[in-house]
Specification:
CATH topology: Cytochrome Bc1 Complex, Chain D, domain 2
Shape: globular
CATH superfamily: Cytochrome c-like domain
Bound molecules: heme C
Order of helices and strands: HHHHHHHH
Distance between the termini: 40 Å
Oligomer: single chain
Number of strands: 0
Radius of gyration: 17 Å
Number of helices: 8
Structural class: mainly alpha
CATH architecture: Orthogonal Bundle
Largest sheet: none
């Protein structure tokens, strides 16, 4: 192995421990394109739901009552939907994609 390769590997390992400690943690940033494609039309790019549909149906993902739900609850809502206005995405998204979206919703709330 060339020294330069060793160095970049070491740098990667140094940056990653928080994510690795909890196993393959869903990557919030990597889920941004998926969120923007599937969710932003109602929930808005920033998650606050400032869209025509979002305002009408209170689709604010940054609200305390949403953020205090567990990751598992949020994942379940994304998979199964929340009638009548929040569609179920369980048949079009993988478990990993849904977990990534939950992580992204947490990330938006911290901004
Ligand atoms: C057609 C518009 C629409 C789309 C698209 C949509 N949502 Fe929703 N979503 C809603 C509405 C409206 C609510 C509020 C439902 C309620 O409280 O009755 C909601 C609720 C939620 C909730 C639960 C919030 C709560 O109040 O408990 C989560 C989490 C959520 N959406 C995530 C997502 C994700 C992730 C996507 C993309 C995969 C997505 N939504 C796509 C309209 C939408």
């Amino acid at each position: 192995m060339k020294p330069i390769t060793c160095y970049s590997l070491a740098a990667l390992l140094a940056l990653a421990p928080a994510a690795w400690a909890a196993g393959p943690a869903p990557d919030a940033a990597a889920s941004a394109p998926l969120y923007n494609q599937k969710c932003a039309v109602c929930h808005g790019a920033d998650g606050a739901g400032h869209t025509i549909l979002g305002r009408r149906y209170h689709a604010d993902l940054l609200a305390k009552k949403v953020q205090k739900k567990s990751n598992a609850e949020l994942a379940r809502i994304i998979a199964k939907g929340k009638p009548p206005h929040m569609a179920a995405f369980g048949d079009q998204l993988s478990k990993e994609q849904i977990e990534g979206l939950v992580a992204y919703i947490r990330h938006l709330a911290k901004k």
